[in-house]
């Protein structure tokens, strides 16, 4: 029994000590800023972390990056923020896992006089005001603009006339709704584009495949697809290939991840909307630094958003 | 004398308690922010939801069963309750209906297991999916947000500086401890897990007892839903994914045997606190979230290893 208790302590402590090596980079004489991400198993957020880390190094800031184990688990994200409040960090930057659910955590940080910077996903402004919460700034791309860019591109490709299908992420998700509303906004002055169907594939690649396969069956006249993220678009690309219709349907995704850039280069996909997570991370930390040093920051900092097509892709490579 | 008595009675829990104390000492040594009143209350408050779900699982696991549906039932009960709150139903009524939704789902599990003769794993696996789907269907996938300050008091309020969720957790644990140690239901719970055949032959209504126990687990998921909804000011149909595993971990770290027949409510509380302390301490130290997962997993494994070693030593 004693032997095993000993093992318990040695084992736990060894791992914990190992983990604490990360903490060695934290210096007492520097301000500490926390970046709380939705998840760390998505290339988008890894890029963001990279941008933040490099900015923190340059500005001599201690950076703590934390994320919940699961992207949708906003309660764990709230726990992390509560713990960072206890840790008394100078500024908390957060990419909310839920636009409404994160608000109680923001209010708690406010009460502890810790400024909160919102990155990437907006919080619900009305509920925030009702709860008496306050955020220092929002740093992110305008998803409505992104949806609009995609819509214009689809109109251009179809020469103003054709049948469109839409693959949505999780309905009610702020990001999803903003992208869709941008698309509708671009299409509203154009009567030539007919929306055949708009279905959810829950942001996932395999569901994008299945759902679009069904759409191809039900609506063989489909000429263009807008998917609210690249994972679903890539799933649809495979479904199109399986139906032997590669090149016949205009496919536009969102996020411009590496796989979709490759698909665009190989003419399997036509376009994707690129955000710049690295910039989001960098500017978050720079803004936090400005707050710490008492400088003013605007209440909203837009990050550019752009359309990637085969033409722009080539230009980037050169 | 009293201390000596307590000592010998609780020898099995000693390892878990030492683990909790050891972890706390460790974090105290490394972080000046750990051992403050406000942080300890913070940990207790964060632990409450998992700890309450884990009580139900302790009962279930002692009968040699398992309940995988608690997270989904929590989400379902939460969205039903939230929609009633938004329809301006009195708070107490909405809460009661939320608890009933949880209890009802749990009773269905119990009926399927005792009368349908399904293995608990299968029945609750099915319920995990059914309740999740029901929650999504009920809300069309959207969260229901924004409640009165009276309802928010349940998770954000304090009574004599103690957060309300902590008080609720303590009350639940005292009641559960009483039921498990002093009532027929408690004795039967151990008996069923120890030897179901013998329990049946000695005249215990095993089917009824199991139905009650799974119903209890569902009701506690409903109670967790009240706390979660109040805490986030929102009920999400996708809330509580994998919470069943955290609750199982708390029970198992606390010394409840998956083989049935053994376990203590106090052990589960310590197990839940160990998980809470770990998450909090690792956040305070700024440890990478990947390493956090490794540490939490390792602690579960080591805790069970120690538990087995202690039992072996006793025999």
Concise structural overview:
The complex is a heterodimer of chains A (318) and B (315). Chain A has 318 residues and is of the alpha/beta class.
Fold blueprint:
The complex is a heterodimer of chains A (318) and B (315).
Chain A: H1 2-20, E1 32-37, H2 43-59, E2 62-67, H3 74-86, E3 91-94, H4 103-111, E4 116-119, H5 125-130, E5 137-140, H6 143-157, E6 162-168, H7 174-187, E7 193-200, H8 205-218, E8 224-227, H9 230-242, E9 250-254, H10 258-265, E10 271-274, H11 277-292, E11 300-302, E12 306-309, H12 310-317
Parallel strand pairs in A: 1-2, 1-3, 3-4, 4-5, 5-11, 6-7, 6-8, 8-9, 9-10
Antiparallel strand pairs in A: 10-12
Chain B: H1 2-9, H2 11-30, H3 37-62, H4 70-86, H5 91-114, H6 120-139, E1 144-145, H7 149-156, E2 158-159, E3 162-163, H8 164-182, H9 184-194, H10 196-201, H11 206-232, E4 234-235, H12 243-253, H13 265-284, H14 289-314
Antiparallel strand pairs in B: 1-4, 2-3
> What pattern of helices and strands is seen along the backbone of chain A?
HEHEHEHEHEHEHEHEHEHEHEEH
Task: Report low-confidence residues of chain B grouped into runs of 5 or more.
Answer: none
Approximate helicity band of chain A: 40-55%
Let me know the largest β-sheet of chain B.
Answer: 2 strands, antiparallel
> SSE string of chain B, helix = H, strand = E?
HHHHHHEHEEHHHHEHHH
- Please state the overall shape of chain B, judged from the principal axes of the Cα atoms: globular
What does it look like?
The complex is a heterodimer of chains A (318) and B (315). With 318 residues, chain A is of the alpha/beta class. Chain A has twelve helices and twelve strands. In chain A, helix 3 packs parallel to helix 4, helix 6 crosses helix 7 and helix 8 packs across helix 9. Chain B has 315 residues and is mostly helical. Chain B has a domain of 217 residues. The longest helix of chain B is centred in the last third of the chain and has 27 residues. Classes of the chains: A alpha/beta (318), B mainly alpha (315). The interface between A and B is large, with 53 and 57 residues.
